[in-house]
Amino acid sequence: MAGEKSEEDTVSEYLGQNPELAQWVDTFRSYSESNKQWVARREFILRNMEAFPTLEHGVPSSSLDRLLSLSMVWANNVFLGCCYPQAVMDKIKEMGDGIVVQDAPVHKTTKDGIQGRGKRSATTGNAINTCNKANYCIYLAVTVNDEAEILLFNQE
What we know:
By secondary structure, the chain is α+β, with helices and mostly antiparallel strands. Helices cover about 40% and strands about 10% of the residues.
């Protein structure tokens, strides 16, 4: 509708008014992210920065690592259909609430009753293996102290 701004426009306008923040946030873009993926993940990062009060622009910290990890987990879930332990899924769902991804892919999982080719299930504890068509897997292990470790490995 005329007069309404999309979330992407609002974020772009905000970053236009804060060029230092824009430059800093853009350093977190992965070389493999499409524009669509980056715009959505950037919005996730910006919307959730306030939830990490020790986060300072330009200063590496465990809070920044956690926010960036959660943003990647959220993007992997939205764009690749990756699944994670329920506590992590609940957290990223809450953090991503209100972010609209236009033409987001629809993923069927083994939970939906469709047999996934090349997928292996986790064998122990709070860990999950997720494989995609590119033949690599993302392995997320959530430790007792609620920290996440994400590992990539080749399926072959």
